[in-house]
Amino acid sequence: MAAGQGHSPSLCCSSFWKYCAAKATTLVGCSRSTSRASPSSRFRKPAGTLMLVLEAAMDMVASPGRSAAAQPGINHSPQCPVPPGSAGTRTRGATSEGARATARGRHAPCSPRTRAPPRPGRGGAAAPVPGSLPRCAPVLSPGVPRLLPQPRNPRPRAPGLSSRPLPSEPDRAAPAPQAAVRTLSLGNRPPHGRCVHRPRPRAPGPPAGRAGGTGGPRRVPGSAGQYWAVPGSAGGPGALAVPWPPRMAAWALLALLAPAAAGGMLSFASYYGDHMVLQQKPSGAVVWGHGELGAVVTLTLSGASGLVIMEKTAQVKGSSGTWTAVLDPMDRGGPYALTAEQGLENVTLRDIYFGDVWLCSGQSNMAMTVLQVANASQELAAATHYPYIRIFAAAPARSNVELEDLEQIDLPWSIPTAENLGHGNFTYFSAVCWLLGRSLYEALGTPIGLVEVAWGGTPIEAWSSHRVLQACGLPEDTGSIFPHQHLSGPQTPSVLWNAMIHPLLNMTLRGVAWYQGEANTFLNTDQYNCTFPALIADWRWAFHTGSAGQTEPLLPFGFVQLSTYRRQSADDSFARLRWHQTANLGVVPNARMPRTFMAVAMDLGDEHSPYGSIHPRDKQNVAHRLLLGAMAVAYGDKGLVFQGPYPTRAVLEVTRGLLNVTYSQKLIYRQRDAQAFEVCCSSQASPCQWLLAPVVAVGSRTVTLALSGCRTLVLGLRYAWAEWPCEYQACPLYNSQGLPAPPFLLDTLPAGNADGGRELLLLPSSRYPLN
After folding, report:
1. In sequence order, which ranges of 30-170 are alpha helices (DSSP H)?
2. How far apart are CA 21 and CA 26, in angstroms?
3. What is the pTM of this model?
4. pLDDT in tens, 9-68
């Protein structure tokens, strides 16, 4: 060391320990917060005095030469560490302890930490004047949660839907838009309920040593004073030269104490975060996360003014260290803040609303984004009118074992914008899911949370648990599955159930929307009449069990019946799959599929779609038909017509060679020359000779068919049994609400004489036996 420069190593180390003691004195009795605005703070874990020392060491390493006002008992030299909290030091973190303390009738503790400056589009207190400390003072003005205003510029409601708006309040500006986000890997232990979208800054320090290095500091030749080269540096120009005793002592402390502070960090599960929607009453929302094994986590729900509304406790259990709590049923509305505390550590989720949460799953037609649909520019421009619909998208992932939490997220909980609704093709956000959620919000006036979990080109077997595969006699052995050339996504049984559905089972849901089946026109087509009903039953059981009974046992489950693919195709796999989607019964809900609803889409073909004819762009009609089913089945609107007309009776006029088919609803006949009806004429049940049966007359509820080549042996009747059965919105039969009659395949059995002919009993076809 040059004469007159610096201080001795012993003096610097002494100053460091005095600083640690001063820092500990400052923090005793004060609350800490895991700042959600600081990615590096996500990895903190309280460990008593050791944690305070570790924190002091980190401050030393981060700012060794920073000037600061002198503090009593600490020697400030150019080469000794400077404690943070003085002039020029930025404070980090925030605590909601003050709000909770006020609700309990006591003063907020004194905390040297305040929240970082808010990021765009997020709330938050401004940073304090550098070097200042807030006073200990009570938090004032508790308030009540705000209710939702009606949506601005609402779209016209569907015919027959009633409006149940929330109490009105003055209109508020929509929150600032959020930037689009790409896939973020969370690993096995996600640190927070929301993803941090920027790279986590690393603490300054020595890089990893090169192979063959000395493993310790060494003198830098030609350097003035006691400076040392960090292991792995070259020692020449550009080498990292640092004062050895204080900085290396700090790194030594980091190395010793980091293992003690690494495990048991407090966090929410990956799909909890700012801006989320939790399920409203009558169900209770389930909240879970990770913590230190054996510790007690306290959950506090508070209103916008800080008023504590609810407090729950949960113990961290299990080999992976998880905690779970069920919130009391809450009325719709918000915003709320949800804070989890474990010891001195806390994590807060903000801008939370209670409403209805819907899960949207399936393959590429569910994954098509708002950017890809008809009138995309208008749909995207309207996104900002719906700040109380919140969206979340899991990233495509697969696993051979059931995962506890999502490993990747495409879009964390967000307020809808044109950017995150139309991020790209087949990414996020799902158009069918968004349009259904928007329609539900307009009909109900309640916040809506939408969770997208989709992957294009995937068969139902990949979304099914081993229980479904066993029930339907399908192989579970992944080695027995050979990839089909027409399918682009994973085909291995259960890999999507394991990675994308099983992690969500703790979530309390209001309903499910499903758009899948195209892949199964190539794979296990005639087993779909088993796998689909079995999947619905299994998901219901799994979500009910995983949510501690909060998700209802007969969870409403809506789905889209397949649209079209190839014109003039002789293949009937699409027709068979549509039939199997109803468990071979033609309409839903039925005995095998209770509390389900279906959107018929065979009249929405799009031959010129730039994404291929299998991806029609009209998702608005799909969502509207799903909405009608959801309102009738999930929300109990008994007077609402949500499905098209279906045949109930047939009378054969033998002498005239006519078949009169009676329907359940009043008929609208749109396409008179369509060849949609066929009859089975044969002396044996199989093989069946299907002949066209032209329509000769249409009454209010009756269709009359001509049986030119089949006068007495009518064994079966089918309708729209083709891959491309009709032109766009031009199938033969609709009801007065504009809903198309679904396709069917029926056996006709003699049932006695009737006025004008012979009565035929119409039964679901037995040509495809139930598995």
Report:
1. 48-62, 97-103
2. 9
3. 0.70
4. 444 444 444 444 444 444 333 333 333 333 333 333 333 434 444 454 455 444 444 433
